[in-house]
Write a structure and sequence with these properties.
This protein has 6 helices and 11 strands. Bound molecules: flavin mononucleotide.
Length: 199
């Protein structure tokens, strides 16, 4: 027999169970990523054997403040994968809303078949610390080197260190785009400011 606390807990659990089954609808596991993708959607440039390439990427997250470390997933099905693993260099370029249509085109084609910079009218600009180019149309560009490849084989997960960061001062209040799956994006909205000690 459960004690009083146990019974109470179970009753609460049952209550929650009732609420869950009545108010909530089960979400297919295949859609979970659409809830948690943090965005912003970015472009990742690489360069190998003198040829630059660019892909769209939304699976990334910060893992350290300074030096800034970023974890990102690059599938081994992508042409960019071999370039990133071999050269250990890339640029993360952050596009604003006006580039959204190009970002989707970049993410729906491969550098194996097409020069995406040329095909989609994106301009390469020289980086200072790495060989892959900045994307001139993006409002921010982060020059990165790969610092940890321990999870690449298992998950395509690369840890990148940002060596140099650039911001385009002409692009005021850029609105980032955040992926919701299959051509759906949320555009960055209003900023609210609350007291918080966390940076
Ligand atoms: C909105 C969007 C987000 C994407 N996010 C990722 C991602 O996080 N990781 C990944 O490996 N591919 C991602 N892709 C797919 C690649 O961008 C796509 O496969 C691209 O064609 C690869 O180019 P490449 O073969 O020239 O490297 C995404 C595509 C889109 C449209």
């Amino acid at each position: 027999m459960p004690d009083a606390a146990g019974t109470h807990f179970r009753r609460q659990w049952d209550d929650y169970g009732v609420r869950l089954t009545t108010a909530m609808k089960e979400l297919p596991l295949s859609k979970v990523y659409q809830l948690l993708e943090p965005g912003p959607v970015v472009l990742l440039t690489t360069a190998r054997k003198g040829v630059a390439n660019v892909m769209t990427m939304s699976w990334h997250m910060m893992v350290e403040f300074e030096p800034p470390l970023i974890a990102c997933i690059v599938s081994n099905r992508n042409h960019s994968f071999a370039a990133l693993r071999t050269t250990k260099e890339c640029v993360i370029a952050i596009p604003a809303r006006k580039l959204a249509a190009k970002v989707v085109k970049v993410g729906n084609s491969s550098g194996r078949d097409v020069d995406k910079f040329k095909a989609f009218g994106l301009t390469q600009a020289a980086a200072a610390r790495v060989t892959p180019p900045l994307v001139a149309e993006c409002f921010a560009n982060l020059e990165c080197k790969v610092t940890d490849t321990r999870f690449v084989n298992a998950y395509g997960l690369f840890i990148l260190e940002v060596l140099k960061a650039w911001i385009d001062p002409k692009q005021k209040n850029p609105k980032t785009i955040h992926h919701r799956g299959y051509g759906a994006f949320v555009v960055d909205g209003e900023t609210i400011r609350l007291k918080s000690r966390m940076r």
